[in-house]
Amino acid sequence: MAPVTPTPSPTIELVLITGMSGSGKSIALNALEDVGFYCVDNLPPELLEPFLALEQSHRANKVAIAMDVRSASSLPSLPQRLALLQNSPTRKVQLTILFLDASTDTLVRRFSETRRLHPLSLKTSHDQRRALTEAIEHERELLKELHELALVMDTSLIRASQLRSQIKEMLGSSQSPLTLIFESFAFKRGIPMNADFMFDVRMLPNPHYEPELKPLTGRDEPVATFLAAQPEVVQMREQIQGFLQYWLPHMLRDHRSYVTVAIGCTGGQHRSVYLVEQLAHVFAAKWSTRVRHREANEWPQPSVTVDRTKD
Predict the structure, then answer these.
(1) Strand (E) or helix (H) holding 69
(2) Rounded-to-integer distance, Cα 309 and Cα 311, Å
(3) Are 189 and 106 in contact (CB under 8 A)?
(4) What is the pTM (predicted TM-score) of this model?
(5) What does the alpha-carbon distance between residue 88 and residue 139 come to, in Å, rounded to a whole number?
(6) Cα–chain-centroid distance for residue 63?
(7) Crossing angle, helix 25-34 and helix 160-171, to 10 degrees?
(8) Average pLDDT in the 36-47 region?
(9) What's 294's DSSP letter?
(10) Taking the mean position of all CA atoms in its chain, how far away is CA 129?
(11) Residue 77 CB coordination number (10 Å)
(12) 282 exposure class (CB count in 10 Å sphere: 0-12, 13-18, 19+)
């Protein structure tokens, strides 16, 4: 009798959600559940391997797990466990680590509004409350190594509905080897914390000072026509495009999964939006490309869709 060939184990698409308390991890987990992931919150790191073994035996192939400082005692072992998991000869795992972050001021405000206790608010040596800002900075230190391994999303200036939409777009379908995220923003509201590359285009001619263009955005044809006629704008677009075209293959060889390119102007409405749209259109021919306009909620009415996928 011929030997029975064992059925190969299915590949598990594992999304590990981590990050700062109050940054939106529960929202991210719910968004992934909506697109077919089996989701588990606050799984202790030491249970990661047996849990995946159990799910693999049931042929589950899309799993999302949230881990954070609630498992502080075993959290330092997590990077090593993840490395062993990815190199396992018996288990095929496609791992994405998503780190949700936010500014300290934003986290303080969110905890104050909800009146919830930060997980690290109680000191281990004394039964007294740790100052909230101290707890947040301590949490940053504990999560520093995971932050360096992960795709980082700054949720300081985005609403829950926007975060849910972005998570679904980024992780709700099969990913290409490298995804480009083009994001426009306003310098007057602060720079994005999660950008890999950031370009300042405030020196370019500003449609804001043209009365008929002021209420429009960089996605409107009159603004696009105006900016396309400016030599400085054309030169800026070509230089950013050339820079990315040269370095993206190097990043792909370095096993990068996401590259975020942030382009900022004063108000995040005209110049940065136009350049993001133009560059995304060019790079969509070769790369999985996504667009974000961070300040879209501040644009004059009629409002526009905040995020779009250009695959």
Answers:
(1) none
(2) 6
(3) no
(4) 0.61
(5) 30
(6) 18
(7) 50
(8) 90
(9) T
(10) 32
(11) 13
(12) middle
SS3 163: helix
CATH architecture of 12-171: 3-Layer(aba) Sandwich (3.40)
Q: For residue 6, is pLDDT > 80? A: no
Query: How many other C-beta atoms can be found within 10 angstroms of the C-beta atom of residue 110?
Result: 18
Q: How far apart are CA 185 and CA 200, in angstroms?
A: 10
Q: How many CB atoms lie within 10 A of CB 36?
A: 11
Instruction: Tell me the pLDDT tens digit for each residue of 66-111.
Output: 999 988 778 888 988 888 888 877 778 888 999 999 999 999 999 9
Residue 231, CA atoms < 13 Å, CB-side half-sphere:
0
Q: For residue 309, with 0-12 CB atoms within 10 Å meaning exposed, 13-18 middle and 19 or more buried, which class applies?
A: middle
- Return d(Cα 173, Cα 171) in angstroms, integer: 6
Backbone phi, then psi, for 217, in 5-degree steps? -130, 175
Amino acid identity, residue 233? V
- What one-letter code names the amino acid at 100? L
Nearest alpha carbon to residue 151 among 26, 18, 283:
18
Q: List the beta strands (DSSP E) in the chain.
A: 12-19, 38-41, 62-66, 93-101, 151-154, 179-186, 197-200, 258-265, 288-293, 307-310
pLDDT recorded at residue 238: 97
Residue type at 192 in one-letter notation? P
**Amino acid, single-letter form, for residue 153:** M
Q: What ranges make up the beta strands (E) of 191-266? A: 197-200, 258-265
Measured on CA atoms in the order 7, 10, 11, 17, is the torsion positive or negative? Answer: negative
Per-residue burial over 241-252, b = 16 or more CB atoms within 10 Å of its CB, e = otherwise: eeebeeebeebe
Task: List the beta strands (DSSP E) in 225-266.
Answer: 258-265
CA–CA gap between residue 299 and residue 148 (Å, rounded): 34
Over the stretch 172-181, which tens digit does the pLDDT of each residue have?
754 556 789 9
pLDDT in tens, 129-149: 568 898 999 999 999 999 988
What residue type is assigned to position 114 of the chain? Answer: T
